[in-house]
Amino acid sequence: MEKSFKALRIIEEGDRYLRKIENRKVSDLPEGDTLIKVRYSSLNYKDALSSAGNKGVTRNYPHTPGIDAAGTIVTSSEKTFSEGEEVIVTGYDLGMNTEGGFGEYIRVPSKWVVKKPEGLNLKESMIYGTAGFTAALSVYKLTETVDKDAGEILITGGTGGVANIASKILVKLGYDVVVATGKVDSQKEELLKLGVKSVISRKEIQDEKGKAMLKSRWAGVIDTVGGATLGDVIKSVNYNGAVTTCGNVGGDKFESSVYPFILRGVTLYGIDSVQCPMDLRLKIWEKLAGPWKAENLQEMISIVKLEELEQKIDEMLAGKKAGRIILTHE
Ligand SMILES: NC(=O)c1ccc[n+]([C@@H]2O[C@H](COP(=O)([O-])OP(=O)(O)OC[C@H]3O[C@@H](n4cnc5c(N)ncnc54)[C@H](OP(=O)(O)O)[C@@H]3O)[C@@H](O)[C@H]2O)c1
User: Fold this and answer.
1) Which CATH architecture has domain 130-270?
2) CB under 6 Å to ligand 1: residues?
3) What pLDDT, in 10s, does the model give residues 196-229?
4) pLDDT tens-digit profile of 151-160?
5) What pTM was computed for the model?
6) Which atom of ligand 1 is nearest to 159's Cα?
7) Contacts of 166 by beta carbon, 8 Å cutoff, 6+ apart
C-alpha cells in the first residue's frame, strides 16, 4: 500500500488561510529525484508568512510550508546518496512553492541536498537552519575583509535568530562584538551572556541629521535589519571596513551617498542563503559543524510537534517569538 504521512497544510478559503494537519501520500509530492523522510524542521519568519497566505512567499495553495528540513534519504537517483543517509535541505524553493519540512516527507531535486557534516546531528542542523546558515555566510563574507584586530563589529537586530548566531560565531573567533537591539532594557543581560563586549540601543546607531558620513566607529557591521538602519551604519564604518546585508525587517529601501565607498573604501556584501552555490554551501555547513560550532546550541530552542506548531506560528506573526522553534516528526 502507498505510504501516507502527516503534513501541516495551509488552505486558501476566500480571503482566509486555514491550517490543517492532513494525511498526504508520497505520490502527492512534487516531482523530484530524491525522496527524504524528514525528522526535523524549524520555524522561520518566511514559514509564518507562507502560513498566513503571503503570496510573495507562496503563490499557490494548498501548500505545506517549511524552508528547512533534515532527515534521511528514502530513494535518490543520485548515486552518491544511499538509503538512510542523513541529509539537510535549506533554501532553494523548499517550503515556498515546493512542499516543505512541515510534512513528514519531502521530494526535491538532488542538487538541493547537502550531506549532513560530521560534527552536527540532524537536530543541531535544524537549530541552525536557514537562520544559522545565513549568520555563518555573513560572518564568512565579513571576515574575508575584516581582521579580528581591526576593531569592533556591530551586529544589528540583536535578539533575532541570525544576529544571535552571528554573535556567537564572531565571539568564538575572537572578535569584539557590539550588539544593537530595540529591547535593550529587557534583553541586555541575555545578550551579554553571548560573550559580546557591549549591548547598545538601536537608537544609538540612528543618524537623525541625515549626514553623508559619520565618525568612524565600526571595523565591520553584520546588518540583519535593512532599511534606514543599513543606510545609517554604512556611514560609521572605518576605512577599508565592510558591511553585510541580509534582511529587510526594518524596511527594503535604504539611502546612502557614495562617500563611505569612495572615501573610506567600505565594502557592502549582499547575503543570499537561498541560491548560495553548492561549493560555498558545503563549506559553510562544515564550518558550522566544526570550528564555528556553538557550545550551547540546545539552550536557545523549544522543540514542538506538528500539533503544536500552529500556536508557534501565531506567536511569531504576533512578534512574540523567543528563541528557535524546532519541529520534530519523531
Ligand atoms: N538573505 C537571506 O538569505 C536571509 C536568510 C534568513 C533570514 N533573512 C532575513 O534576515 C532578517 C533577520 O532574520 P531573523 O531570522 O534573525 O529574524 P528575527 O529572528 O525575526 O529577528 C529580527 C530582529 O530584527 C529586529 N527588528 C525587528 N523589527 C525591526 C524594525 N522595524 N527595525 C529595526 N529592527 C527590527 C529585532 O531585534 P531587536 O529588537 O533586538 O532590535 C528582531 O529580533 C529577516 O529580514 C529575514 O527575512 C534573510
Assistant:
1) 3-Layer(aba) Sandwich (3.40)
2) 45, 130-131, 134, 157-163, 181-183, 202, 224-225, 229, 246-250, 271-274
3) 999 999 999 999 888 999 999 999 999 999 999 9
4) 999 999 998 8
5) 0.95
6) 40
7) 135, 136, 138, 139, 155, 222, 224
